[in-house]
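Annex B. Sample input.
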Amino acid sequence: MENFRNLIKKLKDLNISIGEYAIFGSGPMAAKNLRDSHDLDIIVSNKIWKEYRKKPEWKLTKFTINGKVREILENNRIELSNGWGSGEWDINKLIKESEIIDGLPFVRLKEVLKWKKISNRDKDKKDIEILEKYDN
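Annex B, continued. Sample output.
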């Protein structure tokens, strides 16, 4: 879990206000000690997205999911996004309903499981198995 702890420290150093972001992807699993995480996927409000998009140290990357172009901002294995998937997720709702663990907001595991099942990539299959056994 050393990777995860280092990433959390970097995230805390950004000083983004609670209510403006939530940790998604494998981060919520790492927060519950279910597995380590080698990057942090952060969903952010449009306010934070616009702020960080102007920062030169954040690299903009575009990719396509289910025919929809998505963008992320990446810096030192922290990835910010103002959307999730191909747009079927209500980011503001996920942020609002996030679970606070050690002072940080994490998307609830039931939502992580939904995402993993939708994606169903090879790397998600073991996570699905772990999440289905976990009683949250």
